[in-house]
Predict the structure.
Amino acid sequence: MTSQFHQAPGFSAVQISALAAFAQEEMDNRTKHKPMSEASVPFAISILAGNGIQTVVEDPIREAGSLADPPKFLRVVVDSGGQVWNKSEHAGMPEAVKWTNKHLLAGEQEYGLKVVTGAALPKVKGNRKSAAGKGDIAIGKLVNMKHGDPFTFVNGLIELKTDRSSLKTGQNLLELFALSKTSKFGRGVALLATDCDETWETFHFSEVGVIVHRFYDHGGKAWEEFMKLIKSAEQRQLQNIHPASLAAVKENYKGEEDKDEQNLDGFDMPAHEIKKLRALDDQAMLERIADHLGALHGERPVVPLWAHAAARIPDYYA
């Protein structure tokens, strides 16, 4: 394409650069994808907003709870030769589960933990952005979590940072939303995020379209409040049932590069309708480029019929 533009008479270098910049902008406006672990807060909030969800950050909870604060998680190991090694997050996960069971879940008979680092959460989409990722530890009723898919009977997630890296709010918001799309408890799920030391945070849906983000000074209080959310998951799920609108579906699939037509992410929309939306978006982009060329050179090119949505979708008028 570039060589044809160079050979075509009447195209200056400035005009070609302007066209390239416009085309790049059009591509940038298509779906941007990031791993959840790399999602900034604005990126996560934009995805949530595209699904009709807002976030509320509450003032830190200063008081201690009825449970004692757990001891700090040891971030180093000492080998047989006496050498001290730092634990990575991955290597420290099994010990973190033991630490959580011993100091936080102690005495709990009905609920338990399950490592889910190998299971992908559903991709989340909104406002021409998407994100995918995995959780660390799932929590739910032990008798139920052994059934179904990895997240079917999960009441919540625990995001642990056992290395020196800080917690990531954008990641935690998206993990909570993703879990709500695959757990039977829907928007009754909750998430606890901690560095296993001084930082303790919870995330949950307070109502159908609101995620509440809370901070705690005491780990014992954070765990106490988190378990209240976990044990009320079914009750809160019934309060947070929210049917997806067609407008939200259209926005979520607008310009998506993911062409898995069977992955409808819980939305009741026929696959051929999704094809139409994608084809219409492609045609609209070509028309905008044609408009731009016409403004630059005084003559607007015609988008060929074979590029129209109706020509690309055999049952377009069905």
About this structure: The two ends are 36 Å apart (CA to CA).
